[in-house]
Design goal:
CATH architecture of the largest domain: Alpha-Beta Barrel
Strand order of the largest sheet: 1-8-7-3-4-5-6-2
Distance between the termini: 50 Å
Radius of gyration: 25 Å
Number of domains: 3
Strand content: 5-15%
CATH superfamily of the largest domain: Phosphoenolpyruvate-binding domains
Bound molecules: phosphoenolpyruvate, magnesium ion
């Protein structure tokens, strides 16, 4: 069976298909015959959940230490709380209903009760924990482990859609390709596929019974083949081999300079989402990290990551990059990037809503914790800090005040940090483009986030696949915005890079070089292809 979709990253994948099982967020109330047997089912699930929590506790203890691990211990204790257990048993018994429903209702009731304790901040904060732990029990009751991806061998992952919080939980070494029914070219799953250098398709209407069958993904032509014939398998294996040959040729560019035929140089850095991506950065010989999407450290965590946990992540990246530049972007949560432990509320227009720097300037406590971690890590390598979603000079001044306060704090505690840490902002809103002349006076560098800049300039939701056909990052308005930003940045003494996906588009490499762009930060897998493009340009012509 051959299905058509849209390829968002090229390449061929051949392997077994594994369909991602979404957790059902809407829990249905169902009558059961035997309430006592249902109570037993609940107890068995609780034991399963406790075992998962114990495993997580041990893993966290090794990776982030006692403080980070304690959360999982407290979740285990919640599952032993008599009030909680009795409430669930009582609902099952008196209403003769399913355990999932009883757990969900008790979880909601307790969370509401905790949230109402306005004079006790500690208990208020437990509202998210009780929900989290209840969801874990429900997930065990529904037959799932921690993740909805049950593959045991490297497989082609088929899903309705994947939220960033789901992709961070995946065992990436088992994913050969992403294929989704929904999703868009600039969704984070697509970006992840580019980082991992694996083919990805969107808008493929695959049948539910594809699970376990053989499959071929053709990321170039946007095709998914289920149950391929021997001929198809042979043809695609040959194409895969050709790709590998091309890849081998690019590998020969390792160690070479990013220089045009007439001698103009440019920096090519890589984008990462966490410590695990650094190996790919090095394998592809990037000159630095131009965008560390730090929110993935938050998405990969069951609670706000502590200063210590963040410090360790940032320090590890800085140390591994051994003196090469590492630009850490501060928290960019909101819109599609949500975490369970931080209730961002429902918004009419989340992309235009409470996100990124807006959250940080509102929740200065969270912001300061992150800035402390970044500054402390700056003593171990060459770190720059960058702020997302900027719209005004006032915002930047306020950020600089807060950064100064944090520096003072660290100084008074005798904690080492880079006093001259380079600071930059993302240019990803039209307002920041128009204000770029003034903004350049305030910072050391700009990094143009073309993914959001395209969305906001063209007024096209980057998550909406129905608009993919008009979502054109080559639109002259975007190219003019980039040109204006580079010109104004340089006028004010700031260097200017591009870290959005457009930076990796080799059909524009020459245009960017002519505009005077100083740096391109791309998915690790695209570094050598962009180097290849740079080396073929002759600006003297
Ligand atoms: C961008 O908007 O171009 C960008 C790099 O940030 P993100 O994709 O993480 O929003
Ligand atoms: Mg962005």
């Amino acid at each position: 069976m051959e299905l058509k979709g849209k390829g968002v990253f090229g390449g061929i994948a051949i392997g077994r298909i594994s369909v991602y099982q979404k957790r059902d967020n809407v829990i249905k109330r169902k009558r059961v015959e035997d309430a006592e047997a249902e109570i037993q089912r609940f107890h068995d699930a609780t034991e399963g959940a406790k075992k998962q929590l114990q495993d997580l506790y041990e893993k966290a203890l090794k990776e982030v230490g006692e403080n980070g691990a304690m959360l999982f211990e407290s979740h285990q204790l919640m599952l032993e709380d008599l009030d909680y257990v009795e409430s669930i048993e009582n609902i099952i018994r008196t209403e003769t209903v399913n355990a999932e429903y009883a757990v969900a209702r008790t979880g909601d009731n307790f969370a509401e009760m905790f949230a109402a304790m306005t004079d006790n901040e500690y208990m208020q904060a437990r509202a998210a924990d009780i929900k989290d732990v209840s969801n874990r029990v429900i997930s065990v009751l529904q037959g799932g482990g921690g993740s909805g991806f049950a593959a045991t061998e490297p497989s082609i992952l088929l899903a309705d859609d994947l939220a960033p919080s789901e992709t961070v939980q995946l065992d990436k070494s088992l994913v050969l390709s992403f294929v989704t029914r929904h999703g868009s070219t600039n969704s984070h799953t697509s970006i992840l596929a580019r980082t991992m250098n694996i083919p990805a398709l969107i808008t493929v209407d695959f049948p539910d019974d594809a699970d376990g069958k053989m499959g071929i993904v053709d990321g170039y032509d946007g095709i998914l083949i289920i149950d391929p014939t021997e001929e198809q398998l042979a043809a695609y294996r040959e194409r895969q081999e050709k790709d590998r040959e091309k890849e081998r040729l690019l590998q020969e560019l390792k160690g070479k300079e990013n220089v045009t035929l007439d001698g103009t140089k440019i920096n090519i850095y890589a984008n990462i989402g966490g410590v695990k991506d650094v190996a790919d950065v090095q394998k592809n010989d990037a000159g630095g990290i131009g965008l560390f999407r730090s929110e993935f450290v938050y998405l990969d965590s069951d609670d706000f990551p502590t200063e210590e946990a963040q410090f360790k992540a940032y320090r590890t990246v800085a140390e591994n990059m051994a003196g090469k530049k590492v630009i850490i972007r501060t928290l960019d949560l909101g819109a599609d990037k949500k975490v369970d432990y931080f209730d961002l509320g429902n918004e009419e227009n989340p992309a235009l809503g409470y996100r990124a720097i807006r959250i940080c300037l509102d929740r200065v406590d969270i912001f300061k914790t992150q800035l402390r971690a970044i500054l402390r890590a700056s003593a171990f390598g060459k770190i720059s800090v960058m702020f997302p979603m900027i719209i005004s000079v006032d915002e930047v001044r306020r950020i600089k005040e807060i950064l100064e306060e944090v520096k003072q704090e660290l100084q008074s505690q005798d904690l080492p940090f880079d006093k001259d840490i380079e600071i930059g902002i993302m240019i990803e809103t039209p307002a920041s483009v128009f204000m770029s002349e003034e903004l350049a006076e305030e910072v050391d560098f700009f990094s143009i986030g073309t993914n959001d800049l395209t969305q906001y300039t063209l007024a096209i939701d980057r998550q909406n696949p129905r608009l993919d056909n008009i979502n054109d990052p080559h639109h002259p308005a975007i190219l003019r915005a980039i040109e204006m930003t580079v010109k104004n940045g340089h006028k004010g003494g700031a260097w200017v890079g591009i870290c959005g996906e457009l930076g990796a588009d080799t059909t524009l490499t020459e245009t960017f070089l002519r505009m005077g762009v100083d740096e391109l930060s791309v998915s690790p897998s695209r570094v050598l292809a962009v180097r290849d493009a740079v080396r073929k340009v002759d600006l003297s012509k």
